[in-house]
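Format is chain and fold; as here:
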Amino acid sequence: MNKFKKSTSTVKGYSSSKIAKSEKNDCFVRALAAATDCDYDLAHEYVKKTFKRKKGKGVMFESSILDKVEKDGIELGDDMFALQVLGESKITNQYKLYGELVNRMKTVKSFIKDNPKGTYILGVSKHAFTVKDGVLIDNRGEEFRPTRKVTSAFKVNKMTQNPPVVQLELF
């Protein structure tokens, strides 16, 4: 069985957040907060602004928004993160069926097996969660559903900020 952590206890500031207590359908907010190790309220504000998320409603992965986020990155507080939208080849497995090659969506379990290192936000039917170094971070009970089909995947990397350039004085 896959390693598992409950998102409500993993996400920083979740238990003390007034916003979180009044929210539902906030799985993408929790997934982003878990993937970036940022505070729930900060992730909530980012998703509200960038993805135009309405209170109590989920997030639709619109290609125009994802293209912009992939190009510009994610800025959360003082940290910047690169978001890479993974293509179909990363979320499908190829099988030979009656002599013909067919592509089928990977399951959560097979995605984790193929990607044991790194931080990912995965989308399954009407739900999103984080996989961090092979550990599933999701709602309690979801660890018993490893055969859910992965419909979208995003790799999240923290961008290192370059130190400021210092002008040398020669004389």
Notes: Residues 3-158 form one domain.
